[in-house]
């Protein structure tokens, strides 16, 4: 539990943090109700280095045994989870802030990518809130493409967060009530700052080795309170390493209500910046735990209400990516599913869209020994 709690929180002050992104004693053991996913617990930095070495050996083994091999890593194995919790909360608060602004400009209920804020109104709102003077925010909105259209969408907004927030300022969030940017935590110790940097360095080492060996590196999805940070850090790696082909794969859990929004926003970013989009689609491994945690602690359940809704979400996300492959040939997907209908759906859509297996744009993943009655016919 202490590995998820910062020094500042231990001194008090954790109550300002959002319930979902705080460490909770009852859910300290993240293995509860999870049978199909490996769980790592943080002991110290040396252990994270050991995990990194193990992952490096896996990448080497995959590179040595097959062309275009895969290796999977988990970010909770590579650093102290406290950073993932905090960074997730920051990203979610900025994202909400954008949606609140959009609602104030009469755009509530639109799809994530359809929300476009008028740059001038946004600048006024930022000035009124005391977050940035008009002169400051004007400076933010003069990028190559940013603000040229006079509007700012969610991707422009995310790029603002990137350019404005160096690591030390990463954990500033807008407080709408008092109208200013506030640190999420009152202070960071030097060691916490180092832990954060080391996690990013370990990811970098693994990505470089994967690129060198021609191995595709899949970053596993984890609990919803870690996931915004994991996805964002994976996206940063994709921007750097997926220039010529998809080396880094992000994982989307389709039992999450926000899965489709996340997929479409990230695909659009890859289009705008010209890199190869790589993804593994799963239904999700933490449902019981996620539901129980949300109910007990008192925040909205992040999981789709029914099995059918999750199925629908999976096929919707998958179809969107298959269409992207058809149009640009710059997207890649691993259909990680033991569901026969999903496998048949994918094969049918590949035939309809003219995506041939030899292109290696679509892969299928089943866990060893599971659903051989699907795996073998699929291999044929």
Automatic annotation (TrEMBL):
It is an enzyme of class 1 (oxidoreductase). Its cofactor is FAD. Keywords: FAD, Flavoprotein, Oxidoreductase, Proline metabolism. The gene is Prodh. Residues 123-378 form the Proline dehydrogenase domain. Pfam families: Pro_dh. Belongs to the proline oxidase family. This is Proline dehydrogenase. Pathway: Amino-acid degradation; L-proline degradation into L-glutamate; L-glutamate from L-proline: step 1/2. GO terms for cellular component: mitochondrion. It comes from Psophia crepitans. GO terms for biological process: L-proline catabolic process to L-glutamate. It catalyses: L-proline + a quinone = (S)-1-pyrroline-5-carboxylate + a quinol + H(+). GO terms for molecular function: FAD binding; proline dehydrogenase activity. Converts proline to delta-1-pyrroline-5-carboxylate. The keyword Cytoplasm does not apply. Residues 1-21 are annotated as: Disordered. It comes from the Eukaryota. Its EC number is 1.5.5.2. InterPro entries: FAD-linked_oxidoreductase-like, Proline_DH_dom, Proline_oxidase.
């Amino acid at each position: 539990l202490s590995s998820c709690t910062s020094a500042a929180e231990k001194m008090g002050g954790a109550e300002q943090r959002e319930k979902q992104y705080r460490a909770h004693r009852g859910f300290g053991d993240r293995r509860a109700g999870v049978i199909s996913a490996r769980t790592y617990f943080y002991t110290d930095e040396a252990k994270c280095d050991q995990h990194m070495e193990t992952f490096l050996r896996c990448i080497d083994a995959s590179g040595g045994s097959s062309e275009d091999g895969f290796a999977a890593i988990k970010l909770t194995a590579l650093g102290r989870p406290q950073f993932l919790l905090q960074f997730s909360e920051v990203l979610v608060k900025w994202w909400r802030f954008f949606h609140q602004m959009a609602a104030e400009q009469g755009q509530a209920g639109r799809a994530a990518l359809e929300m476009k804020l008028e740059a001038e109104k946004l600048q006024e709102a930022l000035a009124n809130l005391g977050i940035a003077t008009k002169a400051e925010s004007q400076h933010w909105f003069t990028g190559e493409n940013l603000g040229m259209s006079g509007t700012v969408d969610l991707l422009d907004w995310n790029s603002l967060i990137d350019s404005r927030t160096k690591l030390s300022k990463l954990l500033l969030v807008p407080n709408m009530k008092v109208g200013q940017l506030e640190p999420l935590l009152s202070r960071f110790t030097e060691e916490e700052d180092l832990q954060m940097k080391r996690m990013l360095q370990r990811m970098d080492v693994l990505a470089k080795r994967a690129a060198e060996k021609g191995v595709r590196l899949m970053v596993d999805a984890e609990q919803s309170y870690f996931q915004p940070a994991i996805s964002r850090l994976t996206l940063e790696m994709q921007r750097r390493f997926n220039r010529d082909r998809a080396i880094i794969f992000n994982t989307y859990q389709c039992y999450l209500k926000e899965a489709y929004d996340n997929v479409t926003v990230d695909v659009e970013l890859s289009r705008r910046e010209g890199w190869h989009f790589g993804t593994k689609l799963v239904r999700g491994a933490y449902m019981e735990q996620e539901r129980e945690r949300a109910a007990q602690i008192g925040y909205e359940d992040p999981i789709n209400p029914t099995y059918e809704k999750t199925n629908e979400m999976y096929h919707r996300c998958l179809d969107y990516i298959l269409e992207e492959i058809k149009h640009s040939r710059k997207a890649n997907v691993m259909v990680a599913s033991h569901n026969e209908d999903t496998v048949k759906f994918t094969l049918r859509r590949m035939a309809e869209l003219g995506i041939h297996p030899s292109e290696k744009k679509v892969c299928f993943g089943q866990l060893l020994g599971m659903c051989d009655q699907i795996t073998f016919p699929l291999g044929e």
